[in-house]
Design goal:
Blueprint: H1 2-11, H2 16-42, E1 48-50, H3 55-60, H4 66-73, E2 87-89, H5 93-96, H6 100-110, E3 114-116, E4 121-123, H7 130-134, H8 142-169, H9 171-191, H10 195-206
Antiparallel strand pairs: 1-4, 2-3
Helix pairs in contact: 8-9, 8-10, 9-10
């Protein structure tokens, strides 16, 4: 131990070599930051409301705006000026079809009854997130939280496996393989067409 202390005194406690190692060792951490922080933006729940069977007709044939369609097809929420995100008016669209001018009258007669969404929603199109892409809202909102759960599970499992692999084959091959895996899974997550596949890739990303 005395020889090591003398060697440190000779080369310096925090010289150019140590500074270089700290900088190089910190570079991979920059990528990990994006893994943690990215979900804040990608997992954000944008404004949404129920899709109605006649929404397209009202937009295209009747020339209504999305705002007007929303005002007459979606009930108001509990807060002033807000709209329900999980309910829509029970309207007989077959009777109001091709009768744009009579729609509001029919809504007045039959639109007081609100029903749950049929599994389809319209989202604010200012930006796309995993929530809007896979419709993870209302009764499926809990699925959005699995994004971080699978990532944390990957971290937990990888802590044991990669530790053994690093002792077995060396730190450098393990770090290089981890960085490559992080990049490949990141690309896969962006291109994933199915949410279960995205969750599996998030697990591998944490691993």
């Amino acid at each position: 131990m005395a020889n090591v202390d003398k060697l440190l005194e000779h080369i310096g406690d925090f010289g150019p070599f140590q500074k270089k190692m700290v900088i190089l060792g910190s570079l991979p951490l920059v990528l990990i930051v994006f893994v943690f922080v990215g979900v804040v933006f990608l997992g954000h729940t944008p404004d949404h409301w129920c899709w109605s069977p006649g929404s397209e007709q009202l937009l295209q044939e009747c020339g209504w705006t999305e705002v007007k369609v929303r005002e007459v097809t979606v009930p108001h929420g509990e807060e002033a000026g807000s709209f329900s995100r999980c309910q829509t008016f029970a309207v007989n669209w077959s009777q109001s079809w091709n009768r744009c001018e009579a729609f509001e009258q029919e809504l007045t007669l039959n639109g007081s009854h609100a029903v749950p969404c049929d599994g389809r929603w319209m989202f604010d199109k200012s930006h796309k997130t995993t929530v809007s892409e896979f419709s993870l809202v209302c009764e499926k909102a809990w699925l959005a939280d699995l994004n971080q759960v699978f990532l944390a599970s990957g971290f937990f499992t990888g802590a044991f496996v990669t530790g053994y692999v690093a002792d077995r084959f060396g730190r450098k091959p393990c770090v290089v393989a981890s960085m490559l895996g992080l990049g490949l899974t990141g690309v896969g997550i962006m291109l994933s067409p199915w949410y279960p596949l995205l969750l599996f890739l998030r697990f591998l990303q944490g691993f």
